[in-house]
Amino acid sequence: MAKTAKKAAKPAAKKAAQKPAKSAAADKGSKGFTSDEKAAMKERAQELKAEAKANASRAEGEKTLLAAIAAMPASDRAMAKRLHEIVSASAPALWPKTWYGMPAYTTGKDGKVLCFFQSAAKFKSRYATFGFNDVAKLDDGAMWPTAFALKELTSAAEAKIAALVKKAAG
Fold first, then answer.
1. DSSP strands (E only) in the chain
2. How many Cα atoms occupy the beta-carbon half-sphere of 125 within 13 Å?
3. Among the four 28, 88, 125, 135, which has the fewest Cβ within 10 Å?
C-alpha cells in the first residue's frame, strides 16, 4: 500500500511543478504595463516588422521619422524637426528611423541606434531628451554623459549637439 501512495504523490508533484510561478509583479499587486508602455511596445513591434519588410532603406526610415515628428505636439515637433536638420547635416552617413516611435539615427543597415530624441509630451516629462547609445564614440575617460535634457534649442545648444553627433558618428 505504501507503493501506491508514493505513485499517487508523484503525479501531483509533477502537476505542481508544471504550474507557472506567479511573477514578483503579480505578488505586489501590479496591474501590468501602463497604456503608454503598451503603446511603445506596439510601435516598436511595428518598426521591427517594417524593417524586416523593407530591409530598412534610408528613404523609408526618413519617411517614417518625418511622420512621427509630424504627429508630435507643436513644441516637441519644432524641436524634433530642428534636431533632424542638425543630425542630418552633422553626420550624413547616419540613417534616420523611428525607435519606440521616436526619431532616431542608426549607423546604417545594421540598425544600431547611435542617437535618439524623446519628446517631452510622450513621456509626460518637463523636458525632451536627446541621447546616445553605446555605439556612439563619445568615450571620455571613465565617465561621460549619454543623454541631455532639452527645454529649447538655442544656437549654443545646436552647436553642441552638432559637435557631439559628429564625434559620436566619428
1. 95-99, 102-106, 113-118, 128-132, 147-150
2. 12
3. 28
**Which residues are CB-contacts of 96 (< 8 A; sequence separation ≥ 6)?**
58, 61, 62, 65, 84, 87, 88, 103, 104, 105
Where does the pLDDT of residue 110 fall: very low under 50, low under 70, confident under 90, or very high at 90 and above? confident
The class that CATH gives domain 36-169 is alpha beta
Q: 16: part of which helix (H) or strand (E)?
A: helix 2-18
pLDDT single digits (tens) 60-94: 899 999 999 999 999 999 999 999 999 999 999 99
Q: 3-54, pLDDT tens digit by residue?
A: 555 555 555 555 545 555 444 444 455 689 999 889 889 988 887 877 665 4
- d(CA 87, CA 81) in angstroms, rounded, equals 10
The owner of cell 565617465 is 143
Contact 88, 117 (CB under 8 A): no
Q: Sign (positive/negative) of CA torsion 44, 46, 47, 52?
A: positive
Identity of residue 130 = F
Q: Kind and range of the H or E element at 4?
A: helix 2-18
Domain ranges within the chain, ordered by starting residue:
36-169
At 96 the pLDDT is: 95
